[in-house]
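I have been asked to look over a protein record a colleague put together. Thanks in advance; the entry in question is below.
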Amino acid sequence: MISMIFACDEQGAIGKNGDLPWRQSTDLQHFKRVTLNKTIVMGRKTWDSLGKALPSRRNIVMSRKGVEGIESMTFEQVLELAENEEVVIIGGGEIYALFLEHAKEIHRTIIHTCVEHADTFAPEIDDVIFYLLSEKQLEPSDRDDHAMTFQHWIS
């Protein structure tokens, strides 16, 4: 099964200059809960932004050239892997777009802000294909820049 997880602003922006455009400790804790002990798949730019493998997860990078020191797979290999286990797509924009039609579940956090000059965007969630299973609004904690809404979509 393929799942996706991402945080975006109110207009779908997920990145600016190769990084997250906010600091949201509560969302990072949510990301950890959803991805812990699972296989995560990311593009090279996301890998570069992390700087290291995320612990207690199988980290896979998709790249046209391969990445030294980390497991790499092609699109087809990831689809094959997802036939036997849950694979969570964690970014970036191009990788989300590639896997959207194969996703069975999406965990989206809407960060209640609008990022100026964002350069990376999440794919649109088609509410004909996906059903909003749950939604929870949260005020920012003292370690969050903005209020947020956690959404769980299924197809």
Remarks:
- Residues 25-35 form the longest helix (11 residues).
- The radius of gyration is 15 Å.
- The longest strand covers residues 103-111.
- The mean pLDDT is 95.
